[in-house]
Amino acid sequence: MTVVARVRDELVARGLLDGLPAAFLAGVTRFATPPAAELGALRADAEGLAARLAAGKAGDADLPLLTRVLFSAGHGGLLAAHGVRTPSYDLLGSYRDNLRTPVGPRLPGRPRAGGRRWRVLGRDVGFPIGVPACVLNGGEEWVRYHARNGFSVLTYKTVRSRAHEPNAQPNWTFAPRPPGDAVVSDPWDWVAPGDPGVSTVNSFGVPSPPPAEWMADLERSLAAVDGDQLLLVSVMGSGDGTDLVDDFAATARLAEEAGAEVVELNLSCPNTLSAAADDGVKPPLCLDAAATLAVVEGVRRALGDRTGLVAKISWLDEDRLAALVPGLAPLVDGVAAINTVAGRVVRSDGEPTFPGRAVAGLSGAAVRGHALDLTRRLVALREAGGHRFDVLAMGGVTDVASFEALWAAGADAVQSASGAFADPFLARDCVAALGDTLPRSVPR
């Protein structure tokens, strides 16, 4: 029996088939309504699919449409249960709802590269691919999910010294059009899972539970990864001047107290500097070399000698990166880059994709060039200065080839957010293709 037939039988058994077109359209129009012609075409597609399913005439060619319809109808978990490649985060659900469990497929066993290991931040890992600090590592269930799906260098989502609520929905959308002066992204946009050209935009606002909640969850998350996997913890401070340094240090100590062996400093998101830009979005801390080094020095003093420290930066131009690295290098064990690329994001009708927030973060294939550029320059500065920090590279990693490109540029580990979201089998595919041949493994 084909996967389409199995999914069809479950839809019938659960009484979901008759209401499928309406549920799909409710999802499509959840945050905004498409133009009439586009909405009509989507309705016709969903109704035609439902009719073929009801008549038992749906076949393998219907799987891409079936995936979109079920995911947008809120039934992504049903697809995942049948092993269908499906996005792991429910774009229609709230941030809090998504923390409970991923909706993507789970592999029956963790992909492994035989007995090979790669050295990352002083630890041996089973394969140097992972997921960076983002909502995809927002709690124990997500960490466990990605670890079992083969992602072995994971960074727990940024936590803070006080609770912070997420921005209002929508928070995350696909961005299938090439970016121009603005990124055009409609809430109902879709990119098929596994498409290496996938890009997304997001506006979450760096939410965080209160420390008592995230520390307990972090302890469980650390216990959920295998001995040849690594879980870093991202932290961020608030305030200005010494208050900012103190808050970063205090939050890093809380992470260390909860068991973190490596702390990553989020120096690359908005909301960390006091001087707002004209568009109302505060620039990343890493644009200010002096403020960045003050934070890193303060955190390094606050942590134990055995706790690793990583600085997460955004894309920086040549002068800014060259000015930052010499002072940063002696203080850290690793540098992670890049974060999302900030820009104006609008719907196809010109209205903000995220109401009230004109600027959001672009990631995925659209920023692949930025990631390769910065990784190459960062590695060159490391070599020229005789520095010893590891490079955790990310940005545009959506398939085996894009993983290989950052690895070939000199990265010590490669992470993926949009790629891992849209294709939960990404790590499996990389391990299968490169597990026997990827260079720079640890001699055994």
Quick description:
It is built from 15 helices and 15 strands. It has helices at 3-13, 20-28, 36-54, 63-72, 76-81, 95-100, 140-148, 211-224, 241-257, 289-302, 318-328, 368-385, 400-408, 418-422, 426-434; strands at residues 118-120, 123-125, 129-131, 153-159, 172-174, 183-184, 199-202, 230-235, 262-266, 308-312, 334-337, 341-346, 359-364, 390-394, 413-415.
Question: If you had to describe this structure to a student in words, what would you say it looks like?
Answer:
This protein is α/β, with parallel strands linked by helices and 444 residues long. It is built from 15 helices and 15 strands. Helix 11 (318-328) links the parallel strand 10 (308-312) and strand 11.
What attributes does this structure have?
2 domains, TIM Barrel, alpha/beta, single chain, 444 residues, 15 helices, eight-stranded parallel barrel
Low-confidence stretches: 271-275
**What percentage of the residues does DSSP assign to strands (E)?**
5-15%
CATH architecture of the largest domain: Alpha-Beta Barrel
Kindly report how far apart the N and C termini lie. 44 Å
User: Based on DSSP secondary structure assignment, what is the total number of beta strands?
Assistant: 15
Q: Let me know the CATH homologous superfamily of the largest domain.
A: Aldolase class I
Structural class call reads alpha/beta
What is the element layout, followed by pairings?
Elements: H1 3-13, H2 20-28, H3 36-54, H4 63-72, H5 76-81, H6 95-100, E1 118-120, E2 123-125, E3 129-131, H7 140-148, E4 153-159, E5 172-174, E6 183-184, E7 199-202, H8 211-224, E8 230-235, H9 241-257, E9 262-266, H10 289-302, E10 308-312, H11 318-328, E11 334-337, E12 341-346, E13 359-364, H12 368-385, E14 390-394, H13 400-408, E15 413-415, H14 418-422, H15 426-434
Parallel strand pairs: 3-4, 3-15, 4-8, 6-12, 8-9, 9-10, 10-11, 11-14, 14-15
Antiparallel strand pairs: 1-2, 5-7, 7-13, 12-13
